[in-house]
Amino acid sequence: MLDVRRMQVLRAVVTSGSVSAAARNLGYTPSAISQQMAVLEREAGIALLERTGRGVRPTDAGRLLTDYAAAIGRQVAEAETALAGLREGRTGRVAVRYFATAGAPLLAPALAELRREQPGVQVELKLSDPHDPLPEVQGGTADLALVVRARERVAVEGIRLVHLLDDSYDAVLPKGHRLAGKRVLELADLADEPWIASDRPGPCLEPVLEACGAAGFTPDFVVDSEDHATAQGFIAAGLGIGVIPRLGIGSRHPGVLVRKIRNPEPVRSIWAAVRESAPATSALSGLLASLRACAVQRK
Prior knowledge:
Layout: H1 4-16, H2 19-26, H3 30-44, E1 49-52, E2 55-58, H4 60-88, E3 92-98, H5 100-117, E4 121-127, H6 134-139, E5 144-148, E6 159-174, E7 184-186, E8 194-197, H7 206-214, E9 220-224, H8 228-236, E10 242-245, H9 246-249, E11 256-262, E12 267-275, H10 282-298
Parallel strand pairs: 3-4, 3-5, 7-11, 8-9
Antiparallel strand pairs: 1-2, 5-12, 6-10, 6-11, 6-12
Helix pairs in contact: 1-2, 1-3, 1-4, 2-3, 5-10
């Protein structure tokens, strides 16, 4: 097998035109260079250099290996540059999974901040709804996922969960509703209302059901929209009321009113999930820092 270091010595000999000149340039003795060339010729099984007076010139085989040595040298230099970029945070890649209502208000500004700070970092984005993205994080397909989890059920094997913010739910009423005059509603005020469901069964709906249970009732869902914008349309049409997380209300439908809820107030906790074993790369650390900063601004 050819030794790459000896190939670089051959390149130095061919470039400088003599063993003695290569020895001076490399800081070796001429005998050490000659020994290296003899070993490389045995490895190649063919003559690599031809003596010409006081110098040497490459044979066809020597010229071939010199060209490959030059290519290898360029690749090593490129690799060192790429590694330096990763170490210094100038380059990198982060695969992110997110759910829809966290996209525009939380993830988008965080990515904009990351791009300003580390413009060479590439981000792969994929919507995780309706699937649980934690298996992708555990398996290494994703580097970070935004998830909703109750605080008392936060532990996940192999996953580090970083709390970002608590997102409260508000009541969304059609204009002209009998409760429209109240600025803050008791959750029990909504017990006898028809409800429009805006979340699929899962971690985003659980806080609402648990809060309703604490208030002594189970909501009567008459429409399953599974989409916050569509739910607002049904509410504006007078088909029922909704309880929607604040991040999910987004652009408010002109036909609805939004009111705060208390006793109790439904709240969902939003977390960033990363692998416990994941290297603390500058790209991942930078995105986490940006997410935390954006979450603070939303509070």
